[in-house]
Design brief:
This protein is an alpha+beta fold and 79 residues long. 33% of the residues lie in helices and 20% in strands.
Length: 79
């Protein structure tokens, strides 16, 4: 079962399904205990990106900012 939209954890309560169980992540709170180990790495990836070999992955949040600022060609190149 999926929702018609992708929930944004910082703006909407989120329900995560993992191993046939659902875990509620209320808006503005820390993730459920089962996900707290992975959450810092996920957040770092979203905000800092990563570097693999000689290529750098542009942080998705940086690309989002480019799109909001209508810098489409720059965002396309970063993608």
């Amino acid at each position: 079962m999926t929702d018609a939209y992708f929930s944004i954890a910082s703006k909407n309560d989120t329900v995560l399904y993992y191993r046939h169980k659902h875990h509620t992540w209320p808006t503005g709170q820390a993730p459920p205990p089962i996900f707290q180990c992975a959450y810092p790495s996920q957040k770092r990836l979203l905000h800092e990106g990563c570097k693999r070999t000689s290529r750098r992955l542009t942080p998705p949040m940086e690309i989002t900012s480019m799109l909001k600022e209508r810098q489409f060609s720059v965002a396309h190149e970063a993608w």
